[in-house]
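Database export, one record per block. Field names are fixed; values are copied verbatim from the stored entry.
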Amino acid sequence: MRIYHFEDIGIDLGRQPLAVLRALRAVGVALSPQGWAAMTIDARTRLCQLGAEGAFAEDQVQDCLRGVDMRRVRMVERSRPNPKPSERTQALLTSLSAPPGLWERIEPLDRWVLRALSEGLNSRLFQRAYVEIARRTGLHTRLSDVTATIARCELWLSGPAVSAVRSPDLEEGRALVLARASGLRAARQSPMILDHLAEVEVGPIEVGATMWKDRVLWQAHASSVEGVFLGTSSLLCVAAAAVALGEMLSRATPPLTGHLSRVELREDVWAVGADDDDELTRMHPRGR
């Protein structure tokens, strides 16, 4: 069974991994989040195992779907489980300085994932997938400053508030970690908040913060399980994280202030956190 690190899916398979989507698309079907949740853990695991294999039979996938409520299944265009790179896939690989012959060296699931993410026009998630796949093949690579659509916002701080965020006293030094957790929850629950996302299942979420001299910059990038960028979920993520941090400051003694501004989507490079480390456990001061 293969679950990519960037998917952030636990062993309970609470969301559909890309390996499962590969298996389902091979037979031309898509499964709703409710349909997936209704499946037994054994059926989920088997479907994930099939999707990670180099080749599998369609009837094996169909066997896993027996007993699923057909109202939770819809027909979609079939995709080849072992595709060739499209022009866009090749262009993105070239932009990341992928070595010649990489496509032949990686596994069929990896090829399907890179092809699917490139067609989903999600350059940030494509880059994260490429780095993970390339490292597994023995290549030394890292996330680079590739421009992508990213949600961002700034929390402007008073002088004392800046000192509080940098100190170990505010929330026992875990203020940014707790604020980040609030942002993650908001993005994960966005289909319950926004009607246009009601049928969407949120997948990988990236969020982090960095400290400038008088403000905290938050950035986020959320995608569906299919790898489609979710702009509104990303905006909810940064706004919730910044608001949570501002609330912590307002409860300090004496109360401290922060001002939220520039909540927006824009083409930008990822400027927060450390490389592809999703855990915000320390600050990364940057001049401005």
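Remark 1: The longest strand covers residues 258-268.
Remark 2: The two ends are 45 Å apart (CA to CA).
End of record.
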